[in-house]
Amino acid sequence: MRTAKPPTQRQLRVGEEVRHILAQSFSFRHSGDPLLDRSTITVTQVRISPDLQNATVYIVPLGGEHLKEILSVLKERSWFFRKEVARQLKTRVVPRLSFQADLSFDEAQRIDLLLKSEKVKRDVEGEE
Predict the structure, then answer these.
(1) Integer Cα distance of 118 and 62 in angstroms
(2) Which of 20, 25, 22 is nearest to 37 (CA)?
(3) In the chain, what are the domain boundaries?
(4) In a 3-state reduction of DSSP, which class is residue 46?
(5) 44-69 pLDDT, tens digit each
(6) Cβ atoms of 100 and 59 closer than 8 Å
(7) Which has more pLDDT, 98 or 6?
(8) What is the CATH number of domain 9-102?
(9) What is the C-alpha separation between 116 and 118, in angstroms, rounded?
(10) What is the pLDDT of residues 18-31, one digit of tens each?
């Protein structure tokens, strides 16, 4: 079984730069799509492939509202955001952007609720 290599410093640096560019672009609200322009979108992470050809952008809309619709529009308008990245990124290659929902906050909340449940409290108290 082969394990994935951790990202290189270059991947991390370029990913963070792309994240800042996209976050700024979302805050300007000039994408040309009414749903995107009225939504507050947080870019939580950008993962770049080793060859810098592809980037997966993880997003969370404020309150989690209209997530599916926003992802659909982002997929349609990825060319616009790639153009924004190309204008500001100082690399030879501009990655293709694919957008995904960042579900890590939902998972953290689910785990937190489990840890606070009565059953877990009883189990922990029973061990002492």
Answers:
(1) 30
(2) 25
(3) 9-102
(4) strand
(5) 999 999 999 999 999 999 877 788 99
(6) yes
(7) 98
(8) 3.30.300.20
(9) 7
(10) 999 999 998 888 88
